[in-house]
Amino acid sequence: MKFDSRRSFLQAASLLSGGMVVQAFSFQTINTTNIRIEEISYQLEEHQYRAPYKFGGVPVDRATIINVTCRVRTRNGKTATGFGSMPLGNVWAFPSRTLAYDTTLGAMKVLAARINKITASYQEYGHPIDINTVLEPAYLQAAIEVTKELKLDAPIPKLCTIVTASAFDAAIHDAFGKVHARNVYQTYGPDLMAKDLSHYLTSDFKGEYLNRYVMTKPRPRVFMYHSVGGADAVLESELTNRLNDGLPNTLAEWIKYNNLTHIKIKLQGDDLKWDIERTVNIDRVANETRPKIDWKFCVDFNERCPNIDYLLEYLRKVKELTPKGFARIQYIEQPTARDLKANRQNVMHEANRLRPVVIDESLVDLESLFLAREMGYTGIALKACKGQSQAMLMAAAGQKYKMFLCVQDLTCPGASLLHSVSIAAHVPGVSGVEHNSRQYMPAANKPWEAKFPGIFKVKDGSFDTRKLNGLGLGVM
Q1: What is the DSSP string of 366-421?
Q2: Fewer Cβ neighbours under 10 Å: the N or C end of the chain?
Q3: Rounded to an integer, what distance in angstroms lies between the CA atom of residue 248 and that of residue 255?
């Protein structure tokens, strides 16, 4: 992440040519609770989607999951092993009109190998957030080198790099909690963190630690957002191929199946008439299926709106056609292009007077958060796929600056879903968390259902999060 102290970290984390080995960094405060990475490794697993998921105009029908195992040691010799898991999500993290799916995924696989080597080479002690802060510049340099070596026609984006690294960061946090026999959300106070938040963020946080901004115990329930992808059947007439696998096929069926109360609406951003009709139809189906529910919607254009006028016209027409449906929109997610610097005209001030506008794809560091706020964004989408370290620091920043907070996933199954839901359960003010792997990758969730039925067998539109209090990230 890019912090006030980034220059000093860049100086400390210089890279040796060829070997990508991080030089030693000596923290000023020697803390016996700090950990050192003893061993780290990863494996990949592949899954096919039950049905294609269309977002941002692109249908996705498969996923590659990276699973990371990390063994750590404290200065006094205690050891523990942590685990992190995340979909690589190349279509979202590395969108390209010229590079094929296999090319961008292949780049992430090569980068994952480099990140593993870099992380294994780092032998200094620290808190997981310190370790991530030191290593991220090395990861970004590795992405530059992979781009050149693979002769890609576009650089690997920073978002793609932090997504690739997120499971490594998660595994380190998980191991840190386990070596201290605590849930990870109990490891963010001054007894285990040598530095306060001003070291990672700004002087606004002088004397404050993360434990001020996270709960040490999960709230017992968190709302689940059901995602309606661009190719999903809202109406029975839209269903072209019924899947006879025991799971719902239409929106009304899903509403009854999970007793839904929250819906995420994926929109096109390049077809105003379709976007408006889609929203109106979803509102009508939701209201007809469960008329007594206080429905909540979020609308996600996946940064495809050409300009702010498109968004404002969409909101105006939806309000005109269904005032109650408009009132149900809880927030708007990243409506326009992710490159904020290149699109400074896309300010959200007028839109955020109507509904909170949440930054998602653009949020990769503190600098991007401040630019987003300057441009009128009033909310943050926290994501496990951007790393536990970043999620925690952005959660603190969002609360300090009184921003709307939500948690979104990356079609996360299994351990990565548990990680995402746990963030939502431990960060104050989070409205809910998206969960669409049950729709598109249900087979990947099967091994987890017995241990965490409250997460993987939703019956009342919300997650039962009481079991998310185990050691480390609490998933293994």
Answers
A1: HHHHHHHHHTT--EEEE-GGG-HHHHHHHHHHHHHTT-EEEE--SS--HHHHHHHH
A2: C
A3: 9
Q: Which residues contact 252 (CB under 8 A, 6 or more apart)?
A: 236, 285, 288, 289
Using one digit for the tens of pLDDT, what is the confidence trace for 267-311? 999 999 999 999 999 999 999 999 999 999 999 999 999 999 999
- Contact (CB, 8 A) for 314 and 276: yes
Kindly report the CATH number that applies to the domain delimited by 211-464.
Answer: 3.20.20.120
Distance in angstroms (rounded) separating the CA atoms of residues 307 and 211: 39
Q: What token pair was written down for 401?
A: 């600056």
Q: Which residues contact 2 (CB under 8 A, 6 or more apart)?
A: 365, 366, 367, 368
Which CATH fold topology does 6-181 show? Enolase-like; domain 1 (3.30.390)
pLDDT tens for residues 159-218?
999 999 999 999 999 999 999 999 999 999 999 999 999 999 999 999 999 999 999 999
State the burial class of residue 298 (Cβ atoms within 10 Å of its Cβ: 0-12, 13-18, 19+).
Answer: buried
What token pair was written down for 9? 């970290």
Provide the whole-model pTM.
0.93
Q: Where are the domains of the chain?
A: 6-181, 211-464
